[in-house]
Amino acid sequence: MNEELGRIPKKRKQKKLFRIVFLVLLLLVLGSVVGVLLSENYFIVREVQFQETELYSYDTLFAAAGVEIGRPMAKTSKKEIEKNLLAACDFLTDIQVDFSFTGTVTIRFTESLGDFCVQLGSENFAVKGDLYVLSRGVDPGDGKRILLLSSGVKTCIAGEKMTFLDESLEAMIPEIISALEEKEMRADVQTLDLRDKFNIRIRYLDRFDVLLGENENIAYKLAMLRQVVRKLDPDVTGQIDLADANTAYVNAH
Known about the structure:
Layout: H1 2-41, E1 47-50, H2 58-65, H3 78-88, E2 92-99, E3 104-111, E4 116-120, E5 123-127, E6 133-136, E7 146-149, E8 153-155, E9 163-164, H4 169-182, E10 189-193, E11 200-204, E12 208-213, H5 218-230, E13 238-241, E14 249-252
């Protein structure tokens, strides 16, 4: 008799536990169903916004992104959007895609025409200062990039970092472009010649062929170059030797 009385509370506990488990499972199923219904009918793409850009129109970016208005957010891939834009728009990097509950897809990016133009055979490549290759088929004479002259290029593939047989150039080139930007002289340089890394040369203001020598003290040499040129008449051209950081030799015409 006592054993039967002891089984009754156990059965009640089991039934109670069963009800709790059943309710939890039911809530999970209902939550999943509601989530699917909301994602299919409410959390959909209603608008696509791009940051302001000077290189591409909205229609070009929208077509390239491949985002479908009315498509559920859950079925819209951020990685796919980024991949599409990188494939179609050569001068975009660092693409960031964000979704909002209001149905807005916001796309931000970095746009760049590149700092250098690299000529390899009959091909011309646009390359950023960090040696990321943006595109090929650019015009080397459009004045938008510094013409980079170098030897021993190992790889130059759009969408990848440019590499050299002499790996020291892979650190030297970003240092030089950084120094030019620091001194606000980036737009004044037409050519950077690294075919002899111990005798670096640049074409400055399209008036002066400048010997900078080694990369050591490059920022100081650039500052000296600007000071020397400011003291010359605006119609003077010629050669300037700054290989010795303490002295500037000017051969003016």
